[in-house]
Amino acid sequence: MTLSDSFGRVHSDxxxxxxxxxxxxxxxxxxxxxxxxxxxxxxxxxxxLVRVARVGVEAGIRAIRLTGGEPLLRPDVVDVVAALAALRxxxxxxxxxxxxxxLRLPELAAPLREAGLSRVNISLDTxxxxxxxxxxxxxxxxxxxxxxxxxREAGLSxxxxxxxAMYGVNDDEIxxxxxxxxxxxxxxxxxxxxxxDPGHTWDRQRMVTAGDIIAALExxxxxxxxxxxxxxxAQRYLLDGxxxxxxxxxxxxxxxxxxxxxxxxxxDGQLRNCLFARTETDVRAALRxxxxxxxxxxxxxxxxxxxxxxxGIGDPEFRQPDRPMSAIGG
Length: 330
Ligand code: SAM
Ligand code: SF4
Known about the structure:
Blueprint: E1 13-17, H1 46-58, E2 63-67, H2 77-85, E3 95-100, H3 105-115, E4 119-123, H4 129-136, H5 141-153, E5 159-165, H6 174-183, E6 187-192, H7 210-218, E7 223-225, E8 234-239, E9 245-249, E10 262-265, E11 270-272, E12 281-282, H8 283-288, H9 293-305, H10 325-328
Parallel strand pairs: 1-2, 1-10, 2-3, 3-4, 4-5, 5-6, 6-9
Antiparallel strand pairs: 7-8, 8-9, 10-11, 11-12
Helix pairs in contact: 1-2, 1-9, 2-3, 3-5
Bound molecules: S-adenosylmethionine and iron/sulfur cluster.
């Protein structure tokens, strides 16, 4: 059983957004205020989202990543993880991971691990508290670092750190961030900033490219590309021959769309075949009108059938999606 699109790409990775709410306001993701929140009654219940995930797992999904907004703001996140961990498909149980800003990890890391979560990706863009406050519009640097520690103590492993590299904002911290991760056994990946910011101010000419990131790292270490990356978006580099590595995700300058295996479910029950998709498939309607599992499976396949070859950033007709990143699920 597989989920293929019209280009023969087999999809095995489902990203589920648990909420569009967030405890930070990162400038590249959300506006400072006036966020157009998804209406509460449009959000999928846990039973509804687990049902979509079950149909997906039975059709070939092998990995589920929980995201948002900030997924740990969902009050029943531990129950969501437990229910997803109990799913079984032709490939067995799905691997469960979560992308988070880490703020609630001190109280949640251990129960999440117990419920079946295997690993976390944590966002960290700076090591300077003042900068953190400017970038996220919240004074919570120490809490973030405490959250990273809590994930380590709970044995969530490996811990990946995501860093969006930004010109004139944190591009002078590339080596410091990499060293911070290496010293703690964390797997850091630098991400090229994508045109998903609420102000639509993204400018390709002013973005920090994978090439810029590699050049900054090479000032400190000798970089050797690590083994074949498969469908992983990050190209990993061994630092001074390894074992330490740093990853670079060149979403814009070297897109990995040809190997994309992802499908997304928004918190309000819309299936998306790409971060940058301009159309969605409404699975909530099927769920709330007595739809059968076969109809949910058909909605998933319909969504995949419309998937384009690539995200098209750089094409003259490219337009940013209408939803902010926080409502898509990164
Ligand atoms: N709140 C969680 C977090 O920050 O990890 C999960 C949701 S967040 C939308 C998921 C990831 O998307 C984060 O690593 C964040 O840095 C990344 N992200 C958000 N906006 C982005 C943009 N414009 N370009 C590249 N990455 C972005
Ligand atoms: Fe919140 Fe994550 Fe977006 Fe930052 S990147 S505003 S933490 S959803």
